[in-house]
């Protein structure tokens, strides 16, 4: 199975997104961390094909988690930063090459990009 770590302090959002992924992409497994501090141990343990990280969380923001993950050996091109902020703001904050993608988690157009990422990971998982 393809493994995804979803880190977001919004429990309703994480449950919704994990449920969606489970239903639409059965070859993908989603682990949820609603605390960025707790997520550090999961990141350190490794084994994830994709990290989905909320930008703004209490105690530690998504950019600090991205930095920690890359220092722990995670490829930055396997990290997606999610936020409720405007896409232009996100692209200014995280220029191309910072990570795989920065997406507004509430815009329908951005969901299409997430679906492309999940679909690609699912196909790679099926080919293993």
Automatic annotation (TrEMBL):
InterPro entries according to UniProt: Bact_response_regulator (IPR050595), CheY-like_superfamily (IPR011006), Sig_transdc_resp-reg_receiver (IPR001789)
Domain of life: Bacteria
Modified residues (4-aspartylphosphate): 54
PROSITE patterns reported in the protein's UniProt record: RESPONSE_REGULATORY
Gene3D superfamilies, alphabetized: 3.40.50.2300
Keywords: Phosphoprotein
Domain Response regulatory stretches: 3-128
BP GO terms, sorted: phosphorelay signal transduction system
Pfam families: Response_reg
Name of the protein in its database record: Response regulator
Organism per entry: Oryzomonas rubra
